[in-house]
Amino acid sequence: MSHIGFLFDLDGTLVNSKPAVERAWIKLAQEAQIPLEKMVGLHGIPAEQSLRMLLEDRSEDEIKSWVDRIEYLESSDTDGVIAIPGAKNLLNELNNRSIPWTIVTSCTIPLAISRVKAAGIEMPDHSVTFNDVKLGKPHPEPFILGAKRIGLEPNQCWVVEDAPAGVKSGKSAGCTVAAVLTSHLKEQLDEADYFLNHLDELLPLAFN
Known about the structure:
The chain is of the alpha/beta class. The chain folds into 2 domains: 5-16 and 81-206, HAD superfamily/HAD-like (Rossmann fold), CATH 3.40.50.1000; 18-76.
């Protein structure tokens, strides 16, 4: 493989937004009368897709109103959103070595921008958000598009993910997948090719 690029998930991979995410979704669950136990396992799946599963018996207008509501709740609350340890150094190293990379996230554009800004991380111009695809993770479309946007084929790209939906998306796209163990156990990410306890482990592994 003569050229390698990196496609990073955002939440749980480059940014720790867990407290803010939990606050927003707990509030929405209370307002929309959704049992909290139904939300288990939705991490990494776009909010709109998640809400369509959770509210499948509601009207289209009501679903859209809750999609707008969770967008507001998540975008307006960045308290405690910080960079994952090693994320800033890793991205700086990639830039210094002119190695192509981008962010491929299930967030919408406004939400992604609010989180990277809060965490002090760069938002690439050629990033991929939920607004850019017809089908979000776990479908392969996001990472196929991410590879295209950095000028590479999927099989030239390493996907770095923390969630089962993202791991499945990356593998289905034909990428090499490294799962960072920030939010899930290794057993929950067993489709990944490699496992990272810390982001510092990525480049030595990829360029071994």
